[in-house]
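Bug: token stream looks shifted between consecutive jobs. Job 1:
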Amino acid sequence: AFLFPVLVVYKKVASFTALFEITIFLALLSFAILYAWKKGLFKWK
């Protein structure tokens, strides 16, 4: 749901830099979620 506005703007910009920035953001977000998951932060107590 978050990426919908980003993709709408990306269609207008359509540059390699914008695609690279989106990829970096998604990679960092994915690594942060995986790190938190490994630490057990998503376990309900």
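Job 2, same session, no restart:
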Amino acid sequence: MSHFTKKHELLGILYDDSMEEGVRINRMRPTEIAQRMKITVLTASILIIFLKSRNHLRTSLIDVDNNGIEYNTLYEITPDGMIAHSFGYYRSEWINYIKENIKDVFTVLTPILSLVVAIVAIVFSNNDELEKKVDTIYEKIQKIESINVAKKNDNVKYQNIKK
């Protein structure tokens, strides 16, 4: 009998006691995920769309086997939008997985963090200063546009003289 016999719960989803290593069980559709997680189907679908864009999401719960050794049980949301329970990964293997895939984490987090920083900057900045900066930028854009118009007019005049 395998030591992977404890009940596990992830996002309110219960798994069977009779798991064996390497066996995936409880593959679920958005409606089932919504029911088990007690969220709307729309929220579950948005979650799945985000996860599909990342190909898959893996997360884990640290557990202890019968011998007192810690291991991680891996849960995966696959590209087809289903949740699959995978076999236990010992902690060192999971740390290696994270090290190998760390740039994927930054690929996801960088735009999110940039957006958060921008929102915080706008919310906490003094509105007068922000308006001045916007006005300054607008004035610079207007100058550049007027220079471009003048260059076009000069080119037209030059073309007319050539004719």
